[in-house]
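Input:
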Amino acid sequence: MSVEIKKIGVLTSGGDAPGMNAAIRAITRTALYRGIKVIGIQRGYQGLIEGDLTELTYTSVSRIINRGGTFLFTARSNEFRHPDGVKKAAETCRKNGIDAVVAIGGDGTFRGAADLSKIGGIPCIGIPGTIDNDIGMSDYTIGFDTAVNCVIDMVDRLRDTTESHQRCSIVEVMGRNAGYIALHSAISTGATAVALPEIEITCDDIVNKIRKSINAGKTHFIVIAAEGAKISAGEILQSIGDSLGINVRLTVLGHVQRGGMPTADDRVNATRLGHYAVDLLTKGIYDRVCGIQNNKLVDYDVQEALKITKPFDTDLYKAFLETSI
Ligand code: F6P
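Output:
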């Protein structure tokens, strides 16, 4: 398929992530610079089905690089999961002269892009945007760095009160299927233990780690649990209370982790990815997912990208285990 690109659509889909606005801005400015018009598709694939479109200009993307969330709004569309929904979305593209769509989000977003291309005949490019950092073909996803820094900030505050009361704080962080936020924040906050979806661990293991820590003279403890860990934050709380008789509190950080001003890394990398996506389109390269590997921009066929799972970072986990007490 080779199409001359005169107008592109851009959408964000699934969970929002800080830095998505920086990517939208980079896509818009790069495309306009190269003489391509840009249409913002609001509310993801659902908005595409419903024709919820707005033209993006140099100035409409001004002053968004520093803002979290996505100014195009986002949604999870059930209608788009069915071929009829995909066909309606493709029809919106044709009716409005949209030659290709850049979709920013996670795996679900890329599956949508693959369908829009295969069923709807609209060329697509995917950009990884999710705080979970769980896209196999990219070391980095937009929003991860900001989310980890948000957790660090919260846990640093929590430590003050945990230490004052000589308690144990269990902190549940986001990550239904991936423990990157949990592992990175556990290392960065000096947590005693971490529970991840990727690792088999029992409540006894965590109790034993804290016992060791008590024997080493520690009087307060932070335990980070990913929401999708093999053992839940609630189970950990119960075991620690029952087995060690220490004062335990649970803090569920929830959606605050998805908000806030994007970090420098997220702004810069989102800009690199947005620029690269338009670069591919102007070279006539479609149906790819862009990513960053070893700090270099890469792109994979969307179907291939969907098959790649990210290997768990065993070295980093070992570094945590051997430096935590
Ligand atoms: O965007 C990823 C994520 O934040 C996960 O870590 C979390 O499990 C999920 O989204 C929560 O999604 P929702 O917006 O549906 O509450």
